[in-house]
Every structure is written in C-alpha cells, then in structure tokens.
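This section describes the prediction task in plain terms. A model, or a person checking by hand, is given the sequence of a single protein chain and must write out its three-dimensional structure as a string of tokens. No templates, partner chains or ligands are provided. The sample shown here is typical of the held-out split.
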Amino acid sequence: MPDGAETVAAERGRRWVFDTSPLIALGRAGLLDLPDRLGVQAVVPEAVAAEVAAGDAGDPARLWVEAARGSPFPAVTVAPVVAAWDLGPGESAALSYALARPGVAAVLDDRPARACARGLGVGVIGTLGVLALAKREGLVPVLRPVIERLIASGYHLGAGLVALVLEEAGEG
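The expected answer:
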C-alpha cells in the first residue's frame, strides 16, 4: 500500500510510536517538532532512543534525544510474534508497542518492518507520510525541498514513492 494510503489509516487518533530512521530523517529535515505541531501523542521506545543516541555526535535526532533525558522512553518487551520477523531492536520495540496498544500507529520506513506491521494489523505511516500530512495541514508549505534535503543528507527514499507522494501533494 502506498505511503499516502497508509497515512490515512495511521492518522486516526494520532497516537504514534517512532522507529529510529524516521526520527533521524525528521532531524535531518529540521522537523523534529512536527509530531507536536500535528497534535500527535508520540512515543519513543527506549530501544529507539538508544539507537538514536548512538549516532553521530552532531546528529539533530541524537541531540533531541539527549535533550529529552528525564523524559520517559518506555522499555518495551518485544512480542514473540514480532521477534520472529528478525527486525532491528528499534523496529521490534516500536512494533511491539503498537501491537499491544490498538490505535497506536508505528512510524516506520524499513520495508520488512512495514510488512510486519501490515501482517500484524498495526497501522503504519512513514516519514514521507508524516511530511505529506504536515503539508495537508499547512505546516510544511512545499514538500519537494524537504525531500531533496533528506536525499542530499544520504537518506534513502525510493524514486517511485517520492514521485507518488509529490503527485498526491500536488507537486508532481
């Protein structure tokens, strides 16, 4: 399912649990404040915070996590059904958190993690979906330069998906 269609399902209630990659991407785009501005109840599991904190010293997401020390980063026990997918610690924690809490969508970019989410009936939204939602709500006036900044920073985004999201956003 394209990111835009998944976004619609994940918007309901706007309770999201983040994986590492989307936080890093939002940091590189200078948009770590988007969840708050979108009115999202956002959760960053302890495993995700640890992965982000292990990044480059100047990484905006790492600085954000370090500034949030004292804020709760919940420890999450990985559900056996999620562990069977052999995903990374952050993805597994985010999916297990969402699986245990109906209505919480997982913010994921990794294809196998998104497949796991779909297979388990967990709502999912990706970084591009978050950006598209922000544009629809008037918080990001133009997506193309944000996406170009992400790509220039080394963040991998499939050309077909980028084209689809830009087209859906009226920037195609």
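For orientation: DSSP finds eleven helices and four strands in the chain.
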